[in-house]
Amino acid sequence: MVAKEVGAISVLARITDHSQGLATPALYGIEVDTVTESTIDEPSVFAPRITHLRSYLGAYTRAFRTGDAVYLSGRLVHIQGPDAHSGFGIELTPWSAAESFLANLTH
Q1: Phi and psi (nearest 5°) for 60?
Q2: What predicted TM-score, i.e. pTM, was given to this entire model?
Q3: C-beta separation of 102 from 72 below 8 A
């Protein structure tokens, strides 16, 4: 799987699949409800196409279950991989000291 950074984005989303959230990197299926911040133009165009959350931060391994509402802030990436893993996603990575990446449960 290869991910190329497109920009940064913060969203409110719902977890749609947690079956691959058991290891690091954790991979979750998501459905974006609302874009709250973005560095890209017209982020609402990307919102329906963002289908994955990938986290290299161990704190988010096994953190979420299908149906959970979450606030996510991370890199918007174009993911190219086998079959269902292609598309756009949000990536949380510890490799940038200049930015803070978050994933929190919401109510």
Answers
A1: -100, 5
A2: 0.85
A3: yes
The Cα 43–Cα 33 span in angstroms is: 12
Contacts of 17 (CB under 8 A, 6+ apart): 28, 29, 66
Cβ neighbours for 22, distance < 8 A, ≥ 6 positions apart: 61, 62
Q: Are 94 and 54 in contact (CB under 8 A)?
A: no
Are 10 and 36 spatial neighbours (Cβ–Cβ below 8 Å)? yes
Task: Name residues whose C-beta falls within 8 Å of residue 43's C-beta, 6 or more positions apart in sequence.
Answer: 9, 35
Look at the block and give the residue holding tokens 């196409």.
49
For the beta carbon of residue 65, count every other beta carbon within 10 angstroms: 12
pLDDT, tens digit, 9 for 90 and up, residues 29-64: 999 999 999 999 888 888 999 999 999 888 888 999
Whether the ω angle into residue 25 lies within 30 degrees of 0, i.e. cis, is yes
